[in-house]
Design a protein that fits this description.
It contains 15 helices and 12 strands. It has 389 residues and is α+β, with helices and mostly antiparallel strands. Helix 13 crosses helix 14. The longest helix is centred in the last third of the chain and has 34 residues. It is extended, with a radius of gyration of 37 Å.
Length: 389
């Protein structure tokens, strides 16, 4: 069965094997792709879907990727045509199901045609031929490169109708590739490491404003920063150290985006420089070079030491928060008792987990003694209470 999308200057036919059109507004990009494929394979006259001028218009729009402009064009066209002639509750050209359930509501952009569905020359047939041609070109491209291709780095250019491969070893490291690498032509090294680099930053000391040292520029070198968050094969690390320095600069630039912004537009001097990019299994340290830099007035910081210090500070803050929560819970048990906690409450679960039965029993005993002392405490009478009696 055929359905048509009505516009003021053309009618685009779209086949479907089912009797009911999908219950969503048609996707214009899908229509563009179908018309483009029909034009490229020369099935326009055979299928009688569109005249040649309309195909040229669609083809120029698809090549320029002006999807938004085309969508606006269709919106204006529908305002003068589709909405004028077909915007009504009851449209006899719609399918019976669409008339009863009102899937498209008042915008009648779909109606049935009298042509019968035929697979030969249909959109499904053309799409299948097109996909088969893409697969054939993919195999030919692999043979042309003598098998040194990787599907993860390949893409099909729909403008030139050719396969392209843009090899980026960073993607291999990010995806944790192991085993046989078709691009390199050998097994990846099982030894794992990372790409280390140093960042030298120079910045203006803003905390010295109004002092004798105002305008002082300090220099710091952060050594041993990592490109990947996880260990990667050493073969990939060596290639990334040689080919991915632009990506390292982009990563550092994004990290110091705020400082660079204020340096460019507000006069707060800041600059950075990438140094000593290397591929290693473990971070190596040059003690003599560090002492030389310190002698020259440069502050030396190692990224691994910073991460270890941050981890220790985080663990210390966690223990302090835990101890504070335990003290609060013990105070609550001492004042109200363990039975005052609801059965499935958070405090009761924390008391069972953090304190244990022995500490709970001890606090419960202290609570009973406190209640007993409160009851045995003598009550002091006042003269005003005696007068009331």
């Amino acid at each position: 069965m055929f359905y048509a999308f009505c516009h003021n200057w053309s009618i685009v036919l779209c086949e479907t094997k089912s009797k009911l059109f999908p219950a969503r507004i048609p996707n214009y990009q899908a229509i563009f792709r179908k018309v483009w494929i029909l034009y490229k394979f020369g099935f326009v006259e055979k299928s009688k879907l569109l005249d040649f001028s309309t195909v040229l218009v669609f083809w120029s729009l698809v090549r320029n990727s002006v999807v938004l402009a085309v969508y606006l064009l269709f919106s204006v066209a529908c305002f003068f045509t589709v909405h004028e002639h077909y915007e009504k509750k009851e449209c006899k050209l719609k399918h019976e199901y669409l008339q009863e359930h009102g899937v498209l509501r008042y915008d009648c952009e779909v109606h049935m045609t009298e042509e019968e569905y035929c697979y030969e020359g249909s959109v499904e047939h053309i799409l299948k031929l097109h996909d088969d041609e893409i697969r054939r070109q993919e195999v030919s491209f692999g043979l042309q490169k003598k098998g040194r291709v990787c599907r993860e780095h390949m893409r099909f250019n729909r403008d030139t109708l050719e396969w392209e491969m843009n090899y980026d070893p960073y993607d291999c490291g990010r995806n944790r590739c192991v085993g046989m690498c078709p691009v390199l032509g050998h097994e990846l090294d099982k030894k794992r490491g990372n790409v280390f680099y140093d960042v030298k930053i120079s910045y203006l000391r803003n905390d010295l404003s109004g002092t004798l040292f105002e305008g002082q520029v300090d220099t710091r070198i952060i050594k041993g920063k990592k490109l990947f968050d996880h260990p990667v094969s050493m073969d990939i690390c060596k290639i990334c150290a040689r080919l991915c320095q632009d990506r390292i600069k982009e990563k550092v630039r994004n990290h110091y985006f705020t400082e660079l912004f204020f340096s460019e537009y507000h006069g707060r001097y800041f600059s950075f420089e990438i140094q000593n990019v290397r591929a290693e299994c473990r971070e190596s340290r040059d003690l003599m070079q560090d002492l030389e830099d310190i002698r020259n007035g440069i502050q030396i910081v190692h990224a691994s030491d910073m991460e270890k210090r941050d981890s220790e500070n985080k663990r210390e803050r966690w223990w302090q928060s835990r101890e504070s929560a335990v003290r609060r819970l013990e105070k609550k048990l001492l004042e109200n008792g363990y039975e005052s906690l609801e059965e499935y409450s958070t405090d009761r679960r924390h008391a069972d987990k953090w304190l244990g039965p022995e500490r709970i029993a001890e606090l419960e005993q202290m609570h009973l003694l406190k209640e007993k002392e409160k009851k045995e405490q003598p009550v002091q009478l006042s003269l005003f209470d005696m007068e009331a009696l």
